[in-house]
Here is the input.
Amino acid sequence: MQRSRGAVGVVCAVVAVALVAAPVAGGGYKKGSYRGTTEQACGPPDTARPCPISFKATKLLVKKLSFAANVSCDDGSVFMLSTDTPAKAPVNQRGKFRALFLPAPGADVGITTEVKGKLERKRAKGTITSSGSNGSAASCSAEVEWSARRK
Here is the structure.
């Protein structure tokens, strides 16, 4: 009998440690400022650099989210899309976030953009997806991957 109680005690201790460690693994990212780039180049062709993305991660939010990306249209036009006002988005228990940028009321260009990301340790990665139409009613879209590191 004494032997089985000891085994039960060990099993309970292992289960308790597993339950305590589980939440830590879900929110395993570092809070702070992140800076990175997209897979696209921004600027004139002779001096083009990767388009920037930056934000600040807290326990519950990604805030001060700003980025730039190129959007291509069916009529051959390409324009740079960037945030005028930094945004914020909630972060779930797995370190994932999603921010939606809608076109300004009355704007000539009606582009909706979604920024999705995942925070892991000191790194973050995700996608920027844009779709809509430009002033000449041509269909425009872009899907760009991005990555960032905590500074």
